[in-house]
Structures are given as C-alpha cells and as structure tokens.
Amino acid sequence: MHKVTEILFRGPRPTDIRTLVERGFQQIVVTQSGDEDRLTDSLYESQLRSKRSDPEAIYPSIKVVYIRCSNIWPPTYFQVSEFLVAASNGLKTYLHCHSGVDRTGFLVAAYRMQKLGWPFEEAYKEWVEQGRHWWFDWWKFELERYRYKQ
Fold first, then answer.
1. Which of 53, 60, 97, 139 has a CB 3.0–4.6 Å from the CB of 74, allowing a cystine?
2. Given the DSSP bridges, would you call strands 93-96 and 63-66 parallel, antiparallel or unpaired?
3. Which helix (H) or strand (E) holds 66?
4. Phi/psi zone of residue 34: left (φ > 0), alpha (ψ -120 to 50 degrees), beta?
5. CA distance 8 to 90
6. Do residues 48 and 30 make contact, with C-beta atoms less than 8 angstroms apart?
7. What distance in Å separates the CA atoms of residue 70 and residue 109, rounded to the nearest whole number?
8. With the C-alpha atoms ordered 144, 120, 133, 76, is the resulting torsion angle positive or negative?
9. Cβ contacts of residue 59 below 8 Å, gap of 6+?
10. C-alpha distance from residue 71 to each of 24, 97, 98, 107, 135 (Å)
11. Residues 150 and 80 sit within 8 Å (Cβ to Cβ)
12. Check whether domain 2-146 has CATH 3.90.190.10, yes or no
C-alpha cells in the first residue's frame, strides 16, 4: 500500500474489506476489468459480490466505486474523469486494480497532473518507479493527454 495524499492510497487488490475498514478507509475504487470476479474466489471478491447485490450487507461504512478498466488498454478519458471525481469527494480512498501498478499507476499519474499540478515527467517517473510493467510502456503516450490541467 502506498500513500498518494493524506486521503488517497493505492495498491494491489486487497484480501479482505474488513482490513480496509479497520484502517479507516471510507471508499474503495476498483479498476479491475471484472475478469477477476469470475476467475478468483478470494474472500475480497466474495465480499464485493455480496456488497454489489446488497450494498448494506457486508460493510455499510465503506463505499465501493467500480471503474471497469481494460486489462490491455489504458484507462479511457471517461474512466480517468470518473476516478478524478471519486478521488475528490473527501473520503479516505483505497485505489486498486489487480496488481496495483499499471491501471492504478496510470490513474494516480493522471491525478497528480490534473489535481496536484505535477509535470508529466515526474508523474510518469513515479508510475514507473512504483512498478509499472514494461509491456505497458506505450501507455505513456495516452497519459500525456493529462499533461495540462483541464
């Protein structure tokens, strides 16, 4: 788990919602494609499925925002916009994809440029240093769209 700001954290798919609630998180932003839901049966995935069918069933104190991002293509402009809105609502937020480096790193880099005014080079460098997989290097061309505040 990496701290982005005082209320925004990022990392891999957690193992249990209870852990996030105990750490004071009020919101989870899930950027997995949805394939993980069908391919795994971890406690976390089971809790998310239960929460989706009955939002008050598992942990009523935590909000779950689903932004379904591709496993292959970078997050779209619409998905980045959704994340920027979710990350700006004042709730302590945990952002994750499957491994917490590619989709998550892309969104954090866009957030840093759009909301915190970071230059592209610094945001991109942090994304790479946080463990971006080399085969997604071409995503940097899409990330450049967020170079300037909009």
1. 139
2. unpaired
3. strand 63-66
4. left
5. 9
6. yes
7. 17
8. negative
9. 17, 18, 21, 47, 51
10. 29, 9, 9, 14, 12
11. no
12. yes
Q: Which residue has the tokens 């450049």?
A: 144
How far is the C-alpha of 59 from the C-alpha of 91, rounded, in Å? 15
Instruction: Quote the pTM value.
Output: 0.85
Neighbours of 72 (CB within 10 A): 9
Residue 130: strand, helix, or coil: coil
